[in-house]
Amino acid sequence: MSLAPHCAIPCHVDDDDSTHLLPQSISLSSQLSLPSLRSLDSCAETLPYSLHRCIATLRAHSSYVSAIAVHGESVYSGSPDQEIRLWPCVHLDSASSSSSSTPRTDHLTSLTVAAAKSPVKSLVVAGDNLFSSHQDGKICVWQINRSERQHCKLKAVLPTQKDRFLSLLVPENYVQVRRHKKRTWVHHVDAVSSLAVSHDGALLYSVSWDRALKVWRTSDFKCMESVAGAHQDAINAVAVSRDGHVYTGSADARINVWRRGGDGGTKHSLVQTLERHRSAVNALALSADGSVLYSGACDRSVVVWEGGGGRMEATGALRGHRRAILCLAAVGRVVCSGSADRTVRVWKRGVLQKGCYWCLAVLEGHGGPIKSLTAAPVVDERSRRGSSSSSSCLVLSGDLEGEIKVWRVSIPHPPPPPVEGIFC
What InterPro entries has UniProt attached to this entry (predicted)? Predict the structure, then answer.
């Protein structure tokens, strides 16, 4: 039995919209008994209050951009070309170019700071460590060098040699991975699709197309726990809340919620299964306080879950994309969704009315499906003084053509009044 998902990069290889898409006659919200949400196909064009601009286009990878991670004022990008590249001072340069009307394509240079032995699937930064997951089932730990022009040093490859050696000695440590093949429980046996770090930085979570969830201690990189068969199909995404709840999204169209044991224990148990999507879940994102979870899937919707504390309920769905949702990023009260339709949509959550969202912008200009996405707030002098009627965030989106675009999006305060294309 193959453990790989049916489609490694969902819904991007064909121009035929029929792949992975719901029939036109099906309404997701009505099927799920959720609040009736209006179509947002032309939402951004009806919002004169939004201001967004592509301020830079970055290109260096020889393949598509599979992962983007922000560290301070710099950006790391990963690709199937097996390189991890550093773009120094992207935040500073982007902020200073916010008044320019022409995207800058040649002022930002990058350098290869790490060369892996397998395609890069995911990147996450914790302290001075850069974690990268790979197609071959391994996780690399790189030491970030304070000097921007220095290569990252490889600190460890997970599972570590010590973990592998100790697990070899005990027959009970072997698990069946295929009909005639066994591996020790510390190994991922397929691509590691996503990584997440606990908010205290003590634990690293990894999920894989082998359907396993693994927990690693960041102090010594020891594998603390492996949940085999965490889903019925490949796991594509993982997110961790401040209170320690872990969310995993899978090609089985489900999101599982895991809770860490008390008394300082690291064992995780399944506490809830969220079922609202009709096809593979590709991406997850959490609000800063963990009270709102966003999930994006091949059914073209972003489902909004609210509650926190590991008990979530679906409160609505954000629609407007014409193809699969491949990636999500949340910052403040804003969530961004990247799609195989080559656009990024920027949504803002209302303050006074629960469940209200506005589509602030549709970011267009990519030549291929959006595979990776991240966002960060912009802090300028006016926002520090509180004299501005809006704030800004930077959105970085990577596509299957190998480009990264840097967008500056203004967020009005208070939000605009309800007009056509905005729903509550």
Answer: JINGUBANG-like, WD40/YVTN_repeat-like_dom_sf, WD40_repeat_dom_sf, WD40_rpt
User: How many whole angstroms separate alpha carbon 207 and alpha carbon 229?
Assistant: 11
Contact 253, 278 (CB under 8 A): yes
Whole-angstrom Cα distance, residue 398 to residue 390? 26
pLDDT band at 136 (very low <50, low <70, confident <90, very high): very high
**Beta carbons of 5 and 236 less than 8 angstroms apart:** yes
Neighbouring C-beta atoms of residue 92, cutoff 10 Å: 12
Q: How far apart are CA 40 and CA 57, in angstroms?
A: 27
Nearest C-alpha neighbor of 355 from the set 424, 256, 305, 299:
424
CB count within 10 Å of CB 315 equals 16
Structure token digits, residue 322: 């014409």
pLDDT tens, position by position, 155-207: 999 999 998 887 777 666 666 666 556 678 899 999 999 999 999 999 999 99
A 10 A CB-CB count for 160 gives: 17
Chain segment 42-99, per-residue pLDDT in tens? 333 334 444 789 999 999 999 999 999 999 888 999 999 999 999 987 765 555 554 5
pLDDT reading at 242 higher than 70: yes
